[in-house]
Amino acid sequence: MLVHVSLSGVNPTDWKARDRIASPTSHVDPTGIAARRPRSRTRWITPHHDGVGVIVAIGTRVPAHRLGERVWMWQAQWGRDSGTAAEYVTLPVQHAVPLPQDVGDDLAAGLGIPAMTAHYCLFADGPLDPTEHVLVHGGAGAVGHFAIELARHAGAQVATTVSSPEKAAIAEAAGADLVVNYNEDDVAGALVRWAPNGVTRILEVDLPSNIELDATVASPGASVQVYAHPARPTVMPWRLLEANLRLEFMLVYTISDAAKRRAVAGVANALEAGALTSLPVTKFALSEVADAHRAVRGNLLGKALIDVQGT
Q: Where does the Enoyl reductase (ER) domain start and stop, copy by copy (predicted)?
């Protein structure tokens, strides 16, 4: 299908892919296409995996009712050179998901990679229930934001860590039961008081910095889902073995197709229920994609979006 793009979402993997192409010795390949291209060949890529738009043309085997649908898109550039940072993008049918009428473009454009990552990390070990305590590191980031909301939608209790009062406000607005500023508070003490029996699932964005804390506050048999590449070597504490903790790594681009379908369905269900909200948004013009990448790399607060149809 062909989608007329309204907004394109920017993720950390977009600027990382840009850096990888500029420095081909990097081992990180978030686009999934490096191995198929000779390094001597010039690369022309339209970036970005996420976005929102309207279906304007369909293939012969796509149901006719999908023409004209407003959709959110995911992994548009996975394994391909064409992403959502363009007026139009062609997509496999399953990568364009119908949107409820009351879901705004800002929220829809920012779903994709972060919401699917959050869903997988939360539910890879099965459903959540109201007795469970979940710890989400980085609750003001895109993955953390959706993880808080998806966990709350499932009925679980959620704590999160942040680094500033501004980020605390974002996490609180998402519905976190406990927000701890790790630059000011006793994080371990606050979490132990909040969940005296330990947290059952942890979403980890900075394993080297948090592994001792995770080991301290986790319940026996808890799982730690790591969705960001560790920036430095990590020493594993004895408590990981003692408590039989499970340390799992994930990259949303390479999880199974079945897991992707479950994540898309879970995000769509939460949208229908009105359980997801947008982060604060900063918009860039289509000519400012490089500026948007630099802003995200510089830890922009909230979500960067490309206003494809704007001037």
A: 9-306
pLDDT of 311 reads: 58
With left for phi above 0 and alpha for psi between -120 and 50, is residue 112 left, alpha or beta?
left
pLDDT of 127? 95
Structure confidence at residue 36 (pLDDT): 46
φ, ψ (nearest 5 deg) of residue 133 = -110, 125
What distance in Å separates the CA atoms of residue 143 and residue 115, rounded to the nearest whole number? 6
Instruction: Name the CATH code of domain 2-104+278-307 (choices 3.90.180.10, 3.40.140.10, 3.40.190.10, 2.30.30.40).
Output: 3.90.180.10
Q: How confident is the model at residue 35 (pLDDT cuts 50, 70, 90)?
A: very low
Give the DSSP letter string of 234-282.
-PPPHHHHHTT-EEEE--TTTS-HHHHHHHHHHHHHHHHTT---PPPEE
Mean pLDDT of the chain: 93
DSSP bridge partners of 73: 51, 96
Give the integer Cα–Cα distance in Å for 212 and 187.
11
Residues 291, 296, 300, 303, CA torsion sign: positive
Q: Where are the domains of the chain?
A: 2-104+278-307, 114-249
What's CA 195's distance to the chain center, in Å?
A: 26
| Burial (0-12, 13-18, 19+ Cβ within 10 Å), 27 | exposed
Q: What percent of the chain has pLDDT over 70?
A: 92
- Cα separation, 92 vs 182, whole angstroms: 42
- According to DSSP, residue 286 is labeled G
Residues contacting 171, CB < 8 A, separation 6+:
139, 140, 144, 145, 148, 160, 162, 179
Of 32, 73, 16, 18, the C-alpha closest to 50 is 73
